[in-house]
UniProtKB/TrEMBL annotation:
Keywords associated with the record: Signal
Gene3D superfamilies on file: Periplasmic binding protein-like II (3.40.190.10)
Matches recorded under InterPro entries: Solute-binding_3/MltF_N
Assigned protein family: Belongs to the bacterial solute-binding protein 3 family.
Protein name per Swiss-Prot or TrEMBL: Amino acid ABC transporter substrate-binding protein
Residue ranges constituting the Solute-binding protein family 3/N-terminal domain according to the UniProt record: 5-204
Pfam families: SBP_bac_3
PANTHER family the record matches: AMINO-ACID-BINDING PROTEIN YXEM-RELATED (PTHR35936:SF19), MEMBRANE-BOUND LYTIC MUREIN TRANSGLYCOSYLASE F (PTHR35936)
Organism whose genome encodes this protein: Pseudoalteromonas luteoviolacea
Length: 216
């Protein structure tokens, strides 16, 4: 997340903490989408991506550190709906969804999007504020978003009619992805050691999350 050209947020704080502890120099650059970030990392034009979920395709192209936090992908909506047992139920009811291009939302959504009819129910938008705005204006039914990010922007933008649906789309560990063209084993070990040593500090950052939006 950015204020003007200045990066900020939970993962920015943790990145600064970890890489300073590991004595690894860094600077932040802004890219338009997660998909672009992955492409640049694989080519060696970007060295690190924070807030990265593990999957086999990514692991074939980059190193992963040990996890530094957990990420829960949730459904934000203005609809008043009962609990569901699967995401497929909502796609089958022809609701619409918006996501971030290139982001990983778990195997359930990945399998759902193998079906062309369901693919038509989902659009990708790079700007998180624009994604939330589309749901707030009822142009899209559901935003699938990291819980922390969704809470932050809802509070920041004053969208108090948006609510969190009870279904959890994906809950997994979050890592730093490191370029295979840049990082040596010694540097990866130093970053992993820093993450382990900084767990109390990371937990303190996590506990400063914005207050929750009521859950449906």
């Amino acid at each position: 997340m950015y204020k003007g050209d200045t990066p900020f947020g939970l993962d920015i704080e943790i990145t600064k903490l970890v890489f300073n502890k590991a004595n690894v120099c860094f600077k932040f650059i802004r890219l338009p989408t997660s998909a672009r970030g992955l492409a640049e990392l694989y080519k060696g034009f970007v060295d690190v991506l924070p807030s990265a979920s593990f999957n086999i395709d990514r692991a074939n192209n980059a190193h992963f550190t040990v996890p530094y936090r957990r990420e829960r992908m949730r459904l934000f909506t203005r609809l008043d709906l009962p609990p569901v047992k699967s995401l497929t139920e909502l796609f089958a009811e022809e609701y619409t969804f918006v996501t971030n291009p290139g982001a990983y939302y778990g195997e359930e959504l990945k399998q759902i999007l193998q079906i062309s009819w369901y693919q038509q129910r989902l659009v990708e938008v790079a700007s998180v504020s624009r994604r939330i705005e589309l749901v707030n204006k009822k142009r899209i039914d559901f935003l699938i978003e990291d819980e922390y990010t969704g809470y932050y922007y809802i509070n920041r933008l004053g969208y108090d009619r948006l609510r969190l649906h009870s279904y959890i789309v994906n809950d997994n560990a979050i890592h730093f992805m490191l370029s295979r063209l840049t990082f040596k084993n010694e540097e990866i070990a130093a970053i992993n050691d820093a993450i382990a040593q900084l767990q109390p500090d990371i937990q303190a950052i996590l506990e400063r999350r914005p207050a929750s939006t009521p859950t449906k």
